[in-house]
Amino acid sequence: MELSLIAENLLAAPVLFFLLGMAATWLGSDLDVPQSIARGLSLYLLFSIGIHGGYELAESGWTAGMLSILGVAVLSAIIVPIWSFYILRQFLGPNDAGAIAATYGSISAVTFVTAVDFLRSNEVEFGGYMVAAMALMESPSIVVGVLLARLSSEDGNGRPKGELWRRLFQEAFLNGAVVILLGSLLIGLVTGDKGWPSVEPFAGAPFKGVLCLFLLEMGLGAARQVKALAKCGPFLLTFGIVAPIVHGTGAVLIARLIGASAGDATLLAVLCGSASYIAVPAAVRFALPKAKPGLYLPLSLGVTFPFNVSIGIPLYYALVTLLW
Amino acid sequence: MELSLIAENLLAAPVLFFLLGMAATWLGSDLDVPQSIARGLSLYLLFSIGIHGGYELAESGWTAGMLSILGVAVLSAIIVPIWSFYILRQFLGPNDAGAIAATYGSISAVTFVTAVDFLRSNEVEFGGYMVAAMALMESPSIVVGVLLARLSSEDGNGRPKGELWRRLFQEAFLNGAVVILLGSLLIGLVTGDKGWPSVEPFAGAPFKGVLCLFLLEMGLGAARQVKALAKCGPFLLTFGIVAPIVHGTGAVLIARLIGASAGDATLLAVLCGSASYIAVPAAVRFALPKAKPGLYLPLSLGVTFPFNVSIGIPLYYALVTLLW
Amino acid sequence: MELSLIAENLLAAPVLFFLLGMAATWLGSDLDVPQSIARGLSLYLLFSIGIHGGYELAESGWTAGMLSILGVAVLSAIIVPIWSFYILRQFLGPNDAGAIAATYGSISAVTFVTAVDFLRSNEVEFGGYMVAAMALMESPSIVVGVLLARLSSEDGNGRPKGELWRRLFQEAFLNGAVVILLGSLLIGLVTGDKGWPSVEPFAGAPFKGVLCLFLLEMGLGAARQVKALAKCGPFLLTFGIVAPIVHGTGAVLIARLIGASAGDATLLAVLCGSASYIAVPAAVRFALPKAKPGLYLPLSLGVTFPFNVSIGIPLYYALVTLLW
Amino acid sequence: MSPVHKLEIVVDKVHLREVTRLLDDAGVSGWTMIPDVPGKGGRGERTGDELTGVMSNCYVFSACEPEKTEGLIEPLRALLRRSGGICLVTECKSVIH
Amino acid sequence: MSPVHKLEIVVDKVHLREVTRLLDDAGVSGWTMIPDVPGKGGRGERTGDELTGVMSNCYVFSACEPEKTEGLIEPLRALLRRSGGICLVTECKSVIH
Amino acid sequence: MSPVHKLEIVVDKVHLREVTRLLDDAGVSGWTMIPDVPGKGGRGERTGDELTGVMSNCYVFSACEPEKTEGLIEPLRALLRRSGGICLVTECKSVIH
Ligand SMILES: Nc1ncnc2c1ncn2[C@@H]1O[C@H](COP(=O)(O)O)[C@@H](O)[C@H]1O
Ligand SMILES: Nc1ncnc2c1ncn2[C@@H]1O[C@H](COP(=O)(O)O)[C@@H](O)[C@H]1O
Ligand SMILES: Nc1ncnc2c1ncn2[C@@H]1O[C@H](COP(=O)(O)O)[C@@H](O)[C@H]1O
Ligand code: NA
Ligand code: NA
Ligand code: NA
User: Fold this and answer.
1) What per-residue string of b and e applies to C14-52 under the rule 16 or more CB within 10 Å gives b?
2) Domains in chain B, please, with CATH?
3) Is it the case that residue E16 has pLDDT exceeding 80?
4) Which entry of B215, B295, C56, C148 is 20 to 30 Å from A5 by CA?
5) How far is the CA of D42 from the centre of ligand 1 (A)?
6) Between B304 and A192, residue with greater pLDDT
7) Are D95 and F89 within 8 A, CB to CB?
8) Among residues A185, A178, A184, A189, which one has the least CA distance to residue A141?
9) What does pTM read for this prediction?
């Protein structure tokens, strides 16, 4: 059962475009998506997922169940980096451990968006509030990871403390992705079923096609990172595959305990199992300049992201279908 | 009645995205739409409004009424800068007065596009020739404003006169926005109901969604300008709010006199009440280099544009519903 | 009959936007499509044509007829540059002759895409494998043209031979356009009628509208090249018009012989009659740095491309309707 | 290698064509331009990436024969007085090919 | 023309604001910035055009009075020690307008 | 601060990789690149922003130890002879960190 889900996922258009992108880079093709187009597509996907989620939330109304899932989401964004940090510290210095912990405690919006497409293709329902869960999980781990790194290393870096934390909170919680996600969610919620039909031809219908093009670009970028993986060593490479499985499985079990739906559980697993490569690296570069981007970026973008998009998502869902 | 229209408008998706953009800048978020994406979206909106207008014109055919409204439009684009100039001269030097007069005599395509969306949401009809009215109103005030500034200030600026006016006319009348608007209008007119259905899935259906994303970007930009408003002083700030109301109201009254439809009257008010922040500033920087962009840009983009998008449009329409 | 087809084509929206772009440049307008937007639109068109072609191939299955047309396509991409080279050598040096031969042996994806739109508008059917034909015809002429130029000129250019050919093959066969075309075709083929409906609102419906905007940009660029045509001289200008007619007519006749369908024949003519202005120039600049881009670029983009888009396509089709 | 002067100019985008025409008229062998460079100067900060494109600088440099610099300085100074911006002159060597 | 020092700095985008603040605090008359410049240095190659934007350099230059250079070097050195990048100082002349 | 030579090269984009390889092979400590710079030179004007991307220059600079310049000039000259473009050398100081 699980295997067929994985095989099926590998033959879905978005995943195939991701693989096409990776292959193009490996073959040495000059295929290239202009950076501003990539950023435009990414903006579109966040906008689309946000406003659609808000509209669905307006349809369904608030329930107690959704509060518990939001609570679990936030908690996991705090616990995952703590426990990751202590494991990573066995092999790495405090700065690198803190940076990678922050990366894996946060989320990858593109993985989430791909999972949403996967669920829609399999006609599995999920709540619009999962978009809120994603937005809430983006930032806490940044603060946790930087805090842990700072506590266990004695050096200052010449920058005044107050200024550091002020800017860190700003980068974490007012990050563009968080703002557009929460903003669109709210606008979708407010405009509800009056607003949605009029934006659907733009925000809804083209979603999967845009995702294909965007994953093409992600494939190009991920393959470039794969080249940098040599420096990561076997421990980190293992971490890049095992961490998403462990975190994803843990999320599925907890989701079962709190009585979440199958769709919500899959998305929670995807959020816990994915790692950030935009928000966190940006914040971490500033707050932990001694952490090597040559470690956390290739690991997240070159290992965990491809794993989740191709195998992780159907795996978590297979686990869910077993348990539900 | 008026108040409920304004409140309703404030809760429409495009306006909410505009407010989201302003809020993001104020909160210090790094949310950002790449410049080329913003220019692409703006091109799309002009293309869409142009070709749709042309198609509608092909449907309705030409009438005498539409000629009188086009005449009023052009006239107002000449008179508004003249009378604005004399008022502004009470407080400002000739260069700044000329620049601001040109700005307010011209139009804001985004405000127009937002008003079109407002009318469509309220199911109010309007003529496709209003796009032509907009295109015709873009340029004359540039020439008028520069002429007035030159006449009342004695300085030369070292540039040969002929060259100056040649380039000014080119910037005014062959401005990219004018060309794409009139060109698309013409193409819509020529291809008519054979052409429209085949481009509608691109040029029509996604319109409102694109407008949302574009107004997000406009909100980000407008909020940045608000920070520069301190230098404008109370007189100019007042002008930025009063001018659109006065010009919009005047336009409504004249539209009533010439027997225009409710939709056309609203759009004429929006055109007269709005101020340019692309075509005019570009031309004015060249022709009146001594005018301070720190005045005309924040005023138009930071005061009048947000006012019109949030309050002005429903206000003009409320006035129209009172009188029609 | 032929003339009415040409007139009709000149009044189709995409061609009108192309003419609008040319007119805008000639009038001196500052209308401008940001480069990354243009590249994004071009990526979209290749993606759309590829995945649509793949889907149609999945529908129709493979036939012997389609293999013969693919064979003819590849052959023509080898023969056209050889015979063009010997003609061009009468007037030009080996480098320029090789470069122009390579240009005309390869294809113009935008011309193909415009022809696809023309056929769809006229409700003429064609095979999805024609996209594969296009991809197969992109590269061979590059190798042929460079080889001929090298053989008939004795100079080395200081670069090691092995490295030159390695990079040339890479630029020719792993060119971004080839990869995205073949990749999307394959993905369309694999996902078939399960995949197509879900991407159609993005990859299918907006196609013609996007083509309009893209041809606007092509018109702006082509008109800029027209200004550079003075350096080409009457022989080359004649070549730029006669070559597409000869190659296109030849293709129609051969297509008739091998029993291709009317739609396929028209597209084959368009492929043989069109000239490259992206892939080939890039490769040629590297491999034949002494060839003047001031010749091959204006000729292909300023003469042959406008000719094909406005007159060539309906002409080839008119010929087909006569013979079929 | 021959001695040349490198002229570097930052100027409002709207005046770019005037700068390059001055250079062309002076007969320099070429110039290179970088569009949309943000910056800060006497007239405040300019972000350069606004939709309006109105607050955009561009940067132009030209390696020119030292004897041509003289004749370029005055017209450039006049232009910059009107439009703002800066102009730097550096002595360097050009690799002739 | 008056003698000035041209300071050129390549630094991680994430530290740009710190560089411009140093310049502003030192009272230079202005600076110009070029965003997203790829490059290669001690910390490897940086492509600058990635979606993540994390590997992006920017280039800043400022023409400043020679007497202000002194006070700028030390803080710039401290910043670059932390963040990587380079800083060059060239003597040139500024066309005053 | 230590004395360095700043090498500035404008070259056809298609030859960029050859330039950076020359620099790398010479063992310079790094380089910085600005893509798509329009310009004008012996082979006419190049707009740099065309869809075809064929008429695009790029600008590369490298601060390198003065003793390495010597060995770089000749291969750069050979390359530029083939491909067009320019190369300037300026003496400046590098802030060591
Ligand atoms: N001292 C300086 N160093 C480098 N760039 C400058 C300097 N002064 C001005 N600029 C540039 O020139 C532009 C216009 O300067 P200004 O006219 O003084 O506002 C600024 O936005 C900067 O990009
Ligand atoms: N010698 C150099 N010449 C020019 N640019 C350099 C040099 N060294 C470093 N850079 C630039 O500074 C960035 C960061 O350098 P690094 O911190 O050494 O990795 C590089 O990516 C280059 O863009
Ligand atoms: N004297 C110069 N100063 C600055 N840039 C130049 C100069 N000459 C040539 N260039 C640049 O080098 C490119 C190619 O030059 P060329 O091979 O002479 O056409 C031009 O497009 C310019 O960007
Ligand atoms: Na996670
Ligand atoms: Na107005
Ligand atoms: Na051909």
Assistant:
1) bbbbbbbbbbbbeeebbbbbbbbbbbbbbbbbbbbbbbb
2) 12-323 (1.20.1530.20)
3) yes
4) C56
5) 7
6) B304
7) yes
8) A178
9) 0.94
